Amino acid sequence: METSQLAILIVDDEAPARERLRDLLGDIVAEQPNRVIGMVGNGLEALRLLETTPVDLVLVDIRMPAMDGIEFAQHANLLKPPPPIIFVTAYDEHAVQAFELNAIDYLLKPVRADRLAGALQKARHATPVARESLDTIAEPRRHLTCSERGKIHLIPIGDVLYLKAELKYVTARTAAREYLLEESLVQLEQEFAERFVRIHRNCLASRAAVVGFERSVGEDGGEGYWSVRLNGLDELLPISRRQWANVRAVLGD
């Protein structure tokens, strides 16, 4: 039975590393039929390519500028279907143990042809890496992801003014617009604890965007409450009485 040809995307910020992988794939093409459909320098470029070009496998480096390999894989999980991914890494022993504990396939640099052939064979029957496994070994992301009509919008986390839970979605608000995220507010709070502060049970505000507080009067003329003003946003965000003490402690009076 003839082995099918794998369409492969190579993602690495170093051109010599991309070319070496391409050459190795050429060396094993008789054993593991494949074709390289693209070579890009970071995760952002890879996601853009994957929106229009289906692939059977992605070989991605871990350490890259703009978006590293782990964050790329987190976002690529939203694609339908998400592609199988093999990480190429020069990580130390402890990091490799993390890959193995989470059943994440990897190749150690310098990559050997026989090891690459074995990885391709395994990839033919692999399922995409579970998002939970990626989250276990990932650093805080530099982007959030919103999927709209088959297109992935990448939202720089530094642009987000607040995150608000609404029904089963979380709204991420930037100065320009709102995005709907299929994520948990609790998980976002844990991941970005240094960047956001909880001001209400359903809302996290960017610490860097806070420009001041204002006292607001209740709608019925009753007890007032504090609100926070964020840079670039006209609306005031109410702070719950339960969170007020913590907000003051985190952000100052």
UniProtKB/TrEMBL annotation:
The modification 4-aspartylphosphate is found at D61. Residues 144-253 form the HTH LytTR-type domain. One of its GO terms (molecular function) is DNA binding. Keywords: DNA-binding, Phosphoprotein. Residues 7-124 form the Response regulatory domain. SMART domains: LytTR, REC. The keyword DNA-binding applies. SUPFAM superfamilies: CheY-like. It holds the Pfam family LytTR. The keyword Translocase does not apply. This is LytTR family DNA-binding domain-containing protein. The lineage of its organism: Bacteria, Pseudomonadati, Pseudomonadota, Betaproteobacteria, Rhodocyclales.
